[in-house]
What does this fold into?
Amino acid sequence: MATKREPMQYPIPKRKAPGLFVHKDASEFGFQFIKYEKNDGIAKVTINRPEVYNSYNLKTLMEMTEAFDDCACDDRVGVIVLRGEGDVAFCTGGDVKEYAEMIVQGKSQDMWHWMNWFVRAHDALRNTGKTSIAALNGIVVGGGNEWNLSCDVAIMADTEWKEKKDGTKVPTRYIKQVGATVGSVAAGGATQNLPLVVGMRRAKEILLFNRPMPPQQCKEWGLVNEVVPYDELDSTVEKWAKDALRQFPGSIRSTREQLNFFSNMVWGTSMGFAKDTLIRNMGGIESYFGMVGFAKKRPVDYDSIRRAAAEGADMELLFGPYVHTCGECGLEGIPLEFDFCGGCGAKLEIE
It folds into this structure.
């Protein structure tokens, strides 16, 4: 009869070594837009905005950064699970209402500062040194897929199918990019990482056509690792998390750095340009029509921009370049399409 051997264990120290970082208990954080839990080596970060399909606003990004930073310095944590609250949405990207009201119709340069927090949040997750699992509990849209791509692996809940009035069936759970549909550029990780994950041709199909991809297609294309029924999602994620804990922490940290070499290189060398691109994009007509239209639930005639441009319209400035000067008050920089001065109201002398 074989003798049962006791496992080798690292002994609990009698004296604590000096340390620079002190982690907190998860209950000590007063988060508003995320839930944060830590139990038995597994940290769970849940985006808690189900009323807006778990889209993230600026405050959400700040809270996620703080939680991931805590995970990094908590040596008891070996795995991070990222999830969305509820059963409808994992995450649907940035809060378009916040974009529309505070950036597109506010200060477009604020997009630079917003993107700094976006990058900090993703870097905080990518640099924890811990295995991360995306638990895709519902639809994954836009920047939600960029969180999926920042995680090491992904488990996705399978879909149901709903029949539309015209008889076509659509999935209730899917992954979909929407950047060009709402007048933006998916440069927060999608344009960088999708070619590495699914290949260039498929990345272009995802980003240039913005079609919903049901779970089984996502698995076939390599966007997720496993698809399971919704009621098995949490137990499957827990199994994966426990498997991840059966690895040496230092070896995992080094392995992740090796695996992420190309991803980190592309991310690090492109994000400065991406931030600047998005600032200029947010001040243009495509973001105005796309995001304000989305926020107000108004359809957009996308081809109207091409038709107007073909007739001589400027494709970046809604009312044309700044060409007029008021003969009454001397105001300069009045847009081409204006007939009256925006300062004094006088009728412009237009040749």
Summary: The chain has one domain: 26-294. The mean pLDDT is 94. The domain at 26-294 is CATH 3.90.226.10 (2-enoyl-CoA Hydratase; Chain A, domain 1). The first strand starts at residue 34 and ends at 39.
